Amino acid sequence: MITKQQVVQAHLPATLTPRDEAEAFAPSNIALCKYWGKRDAELNLPINASLSVSLAHLGTRTRLVHATDGRDRVWLNGAEQAADSAFSQKLLAFVDLFRAGHALPVHVHTQNNIPTAAGLASSASGFAALTLALNEWLNLELAPAVLSAFARMGSGSACRSLFEGFVQWEDGIRDDGMDSHGVRLEASWPELRIGLVKVATGEKAVDSRAGMKRTIETAHLYQSWPLQAAADLTRLHQAIGEKDFALLGQTAEQNALSMHATMIASWPPLLYWTPDSVAAMQQVWQLREQGLALYFTMDAGPNLKLLFEAGDQAQVEQAFAGLEVVAPFSA
Ligand code: PMV
Questions:
Q1: Alpha-carbon 178 to chain mean position
Q2: 198-231 burial, b for 16+ CB within 10 Å, e for fewer?
Q3: Are 311 and 286 in contact (CB under 8 A)?
Q4: What is the CATH T-level fold of the domain 4-184, as seen in this structure?
Q5: Percent of residues, the chain, with pLDDT higher than 70
Q6: Which of 139, 153, 200, 269 is deepest in the core (most CB within 10 A)?
């Protein structure tokens, strides 16, 4: 088995020359065709390719400062995190991949501007921003595809947050995973809008790593998932190429529900929905029946992400009070 450490080490210079400090931003992203299932749990290599859209200005800004007090310290949104917290440990374990035993103490300042009320995961933008900041801090000058592959080892979906706009995460075939990274699609869709519906916040009961593992090990239905994802990717490329919004929305919604079907078919069952999630879905279906071009997608949690176009924004905002709306392709 190839380890993360080995993969990163193969791309680092013999001596590291850190700057005093470095800073980077990475956007959050929402998958229209989901990543669900790992073929390699150490490197976060996926069973299927996925496709997302990045959320422009919503994401994580990370600043790394070469520590003069000689010790690693971590802040999240201005609050220092305990050294033994899960957040600090995950983050510093990732930094260690790059320090490789060198005595390079660091202060990590992580700032998320994702509204906490939106119930959006921040690990994707977090690991993407951290990877970009490490590249700056240690003067690595690595190519975006390499940095994307590194970010994937922090959190799978982070590899898509290295890029703006539509991004495909290639599944790849290499054992070291260096061909499994995000690739930006050239297409733009200025009218596309994403609405973040808050159903519930707080830690999820089963995280995505454990959820994927359980699904693969116990749900027979999972066998159909790679086929579904491959067909949906083709449809999404067609939708994006032809700017066919109904095809984009239908494909994304069906893809998300298919992923959730595999979760529900696991044992013990994995149901991320609350009654409020279902009520919001039914509201979307009702509005669609009335002629509104409105679709949704969902990740491993209870919140809905609405998909619609700029011309319908007023109507959608009226139906969903307090909706946070993102224009992924706004200049
Ligand atoms: O990147 P992870 O390990 O948090 O997994 C993300 C899984 C989903 O959000 C459910 C799907 C996706 O492609 O983002």
A1: 18
A2: bbeeeebebebeebbebbbebbeebeebbebbee
A3: no
A4: Ribosomal Protein S5; domain 2 (3.30.230)
A5: 97
A6: 153
Distance 299 CA to ligand 1 centre (A): 7
Q: DSSP letters of 292-327?
A: ---EEEE-SSS-EEEEEEGGGHHHHHHHSTT-EEE-
pTM of this structure: 0.97
Instruction: Give the distance (Å) from ligand 1 centre to CA of residue 156.
Output: 7
Give the position of tokens 């994995």. Answer: 270
- Is any atom of ligand 1 closer than 6 Å to the C-beta of 303? no
User: Which of 33, 45, 157, 166 to mutate to test ligand 1, by most ligand atoms within 8 A of the CB atom?
Assistant: 157
Q: Which CATH class name applies to 192-326? A: alpha beta
What is the reported pLDDT for 204?
62
Question: Tokens 């949104």, residue?
Answer: 77
Going by C-alpha positions, the residue among 18, 33, 13, 4 that lies closest to residue 127 is 4
The list of the chain residues with pLDDT below 70 reads 116-119, 201-204, 331
- The finding on whether 123 has its CB within 6 A of some atom of ligand 1 is yes
> Minimal CA–CA distance to 297: which of 122, 116, 53?
53
Strand bridging mode 324-326 / 304-309: unpaired
Our CA angle for 293, 256, 59, nearest 5°, is 85
Q: Where are the domains of the chain?
A: 4-184, 192-326
